């Protein structure tokens, strides 16, 4: 009798919708251990045929805009309509301890208890843009487990929005009802990524301010080139407190996703993202080989010293080390 294959068993559990298997699978793909990386690649390959049908949605916004509160309200609305929602909340990682600052589900307690939802905080690992390096793989595992909407919440630290746009279909930008002041804090490049802009806290005393902010954002978007030719960016005023506008956000997302799919733009987008993922993996693998190669390790201190002293250019130093790698 052949030995059991733990990776195959894990893939079967994920495909069957076993939450514990999904949690173990995401932990595996997040691991940096060499043996785990090989197993993680096998796991993703095993479930790849069950992926691709979900709406992949990135959500970000400046601090204090109410991301977690909005996502909880939004996710609950979707599960109430029969959707299965996975939330990959990429938390900032402490530069001192290496631990996740937020690290748990306390920000979305109600959604985390919802049987139709799965909330997974994930430390960013210091990755550029705040998006965990393995978020792509975690997203695929969630799709394989039967979640038809996957939300990726970024830490909102500048380049995180660009990073999340490279692995999702559509991008939702949250803005507070502060009008032009808030617009000044959102970089033009970030605004150009947005397929839907949601002005949050549009209730009570802030309702009028939210309306003014929405009008300002609509005027600003008219001056920018949309991310997708098929999708005209929409601006929605929403309140997570009374639910106003939350359903409209999903309607805007559905319409944009349908337009992308119908035009073939979704297939082209995901193909481009897969190619970018390939190059990201190549860069990571090359860096690992450089750091673990004996000949490179021996030469590296001298090369770094020469570069630091200004007697060797960084380009020439890199070429020298790459030549050693090829010869080893």
TrEMBL record:
Q: Specify the AAA+ ATPase domain's residue ranges.
A: 53-221
Q: Which family does it belong to?
A: Belongs to the SIMIBI class G3E GTPase family. ArgK/MeaB subfamily.
Q: In its keyword annotation, does this UniProt entry include Zinc?
A: no
SMART domains in the record? AAA
Pfam annotation, one family: MeaB
Q: Which organism is it from?
A: Iamia majanohamensis
Q: Which domain of life is it from?
A: Bacteria
EC number assigned by the record = 3.6.5.-
- What keywords would UniProt list here? Hydrolase
GO molecular function: any one? GTPase activity
List GO terms (cellular component aspect). cytoplasm
Output this protein's name: Methylmalonyl Co-A mutase-associated GTPase MeaB
Q: Does the keyword Hydrolase apply?
A: yes
SUPFAM superfamilies according to UniProt: P-loop containing nucleoside triphosphate hydrolases
Q: What class of enzyme is it?
A: hydrolase
Q: Which InterPro entries match?
A: AAA+_ATPase (IPR003593), GTPase_ArgK (IPR005129), P-loop_NTPase (IPR027417)
């Amino acid at each position: 009798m052949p030995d059991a294959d733990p990776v195959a068993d894990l893939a079967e559990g994920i495909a069957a919708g076993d939450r514990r298997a999904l949690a173990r699978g995401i932990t595996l793909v997040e691991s940096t251990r060499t043996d785990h990386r090989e197993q993680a690649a096998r796991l993703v390959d095993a479930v790849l045929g069950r992926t691709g049908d979900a709406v992949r949605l990135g959500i970000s916004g400046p601090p204090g805009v109410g991301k977690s509160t909005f996502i909880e309200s939004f996710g609950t609305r979707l599960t109430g309509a029969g959707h299965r929602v996975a939330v990959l909340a990429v938390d900032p990682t402490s530069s001192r301890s290496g631990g996740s600052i937020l690290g748990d589900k306390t920000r979305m307690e109600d959604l985390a208890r919802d049987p139709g939802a799965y909330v997974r905080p994930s430390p960013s690992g210091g990755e550029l843009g705040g998006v965990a390096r393995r978020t792509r793989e975690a997203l695929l595992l969630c799709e394989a487990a039967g979640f038809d909407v996957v939300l990726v919440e970024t830490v909102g630290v500048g380049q995180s929005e660009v990073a999340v746009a490279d692995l999702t279909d559509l991008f939702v930008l949250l803005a507070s009802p502060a009008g032009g002041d808030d617009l000044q804090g959102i970089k033009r490049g970030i605004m150009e990524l947005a397929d839907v802009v949601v002005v949050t806290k549009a209730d009570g005393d802030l309702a009028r301010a939210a309306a003014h902010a929405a009008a300002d954002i609509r005027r600003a978007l008219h001056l920018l080139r949309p991310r997708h030719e098929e999708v005209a960016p929409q601006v929605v005023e929403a309140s997570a407190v009374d639910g106003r506008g939350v359903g409209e956000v999903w309607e805007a997302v559905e319409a944009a996703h349908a337009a992308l799919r119908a035009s073939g733009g979704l297939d082209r987008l995901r193909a481009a993202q897969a190619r970018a993922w390939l190059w990201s993996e190549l860069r990571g693998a090359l860096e690992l080989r450089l750091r673990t190669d004996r000949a490179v390790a021996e030469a590296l201190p001298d090369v770094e010293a020469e570069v630091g002293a200004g007697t060797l250019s960084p380009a020439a130093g890199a070429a020298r080390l790459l030549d050693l790698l090829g010869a080893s």
